[in-house]
């Protein structure tokens, strides 16, 4: 069966079928997947049940996997675990538990790992267990946003550097890191304009971790970044993915924002396993 693509919106995203990513892929098969990723920024692959090892093997076709840091339950593994289930007992985590409070920031528009000195290329999220209602993930394209800029804005943005800060973004939802925890997450600076080396398309690296514009006042930087975020996430530009068991979604962290949406964490179980692939592109000078 040949790989098939069906666009999800007029702007970005595609449903990809006709391949089993749990099995070894030929170079030609992965080449088609990578080309679709570069073109559409978000790929939805339905009916792809994966073990942890199968997800790792598939994800490594995109590049080197990031490790997960201290605060996520998947710390010390290649996985970021998005779940209301205790990793040791499998029982539901109480709503007032710090682990659930930490995950509240996932409901902010963001791109994974922009706060790292070497940001990520993409994320691969596997739906292992989903609730009967709620828990959708929404996506918005900053490539679409870049294409909407005036020529004057594009020229200005080419010189801008943004400081991204994990401690800042978690603080916006009231989550406080200890001094020892915060020390593991130093701020990083990145050019706001990112370029896909395979097709030359430009996008903007913004979102919840983007704290300020280097060289601007804090107020001016916040107004600028909030305006861009509002422009990128207009309702008519959003793709909302309603998860089904065994869905796999791949997205470009340098061209797409995403956010989680609520579900009943006390009465329904949810387990999502995310691998994140490094871009290998260093921070701005």
Structure description:
There is one protein chain. The chain is of the alpha+beta class and 285 residues long. It has a single domain (4-278), classed as Double-stranded beta-helix (4-Layer Sandwich). Helix content is 24%, strand content 25%. The protein has 8 helices and 15 strands. The chain has helices at 27-40, 52-59, 98-103, 142-148, 151-157, 166-171, 179-182, 218-232, and strands spanning 4-7, 14-17, 42-45, 79-83, 120-129, 137-141, 161-164, 188-191, 193-195, 202-204, 210-213, 238-241, 248-252, 256-260, 271-278. β9 and β10 (202-204) form a beta hairpin. The longest helix has 15 residues, at 218-232. The protein starts with a strand and ends in a 7-residue tail after the last strand. The model has no long low-confidence stretch (mean pLDDT 94).
Task: State the main characteristics.
285 residues; alpha+beta; three-stranded antiparallel beta sheet; 8 helices
Quick summary of this structure?
With 285 residues, the protein is an alpha+beta fold. It is built from 8 helices and 15 strands.
Helices, by number, come to 8
Structurally, how many domains make up the residues? 1
* Oligomer classification: single chain
Mean pLDDT: 94
CATH homologous superfamily descriptor: Clavaminate synthase-like
The strands making up the biggest β-sheet line up spatially as 1-2-3-13-5-15-4
Give the SSE string.
EEHEHEHEEHHEHHEEEEHEEEE
Please give the structural blueprint.
Layout: E1 4-7, E2 14-17, H1 27-40, E3 42-45, H2 52-59, E4 79-83, H3 98-103, E5 120-129, E6 137-141, H4 142-148, H5 151-157, E7 161-164, H6 166-171, H7 179-182, E8 188-191, E9 193-195, E10 202-204, E11 210-213, H8 218-232, E12 238-241, E13 248-252, E14 256-260, E15 271-278
Parallel strand pairs: 2-3
Antiparallel strand pairs: 1-2, 3-13, 4-15, 5-13, 5-15, 6-12, 6-14, 7-8, 7-11, 9-10
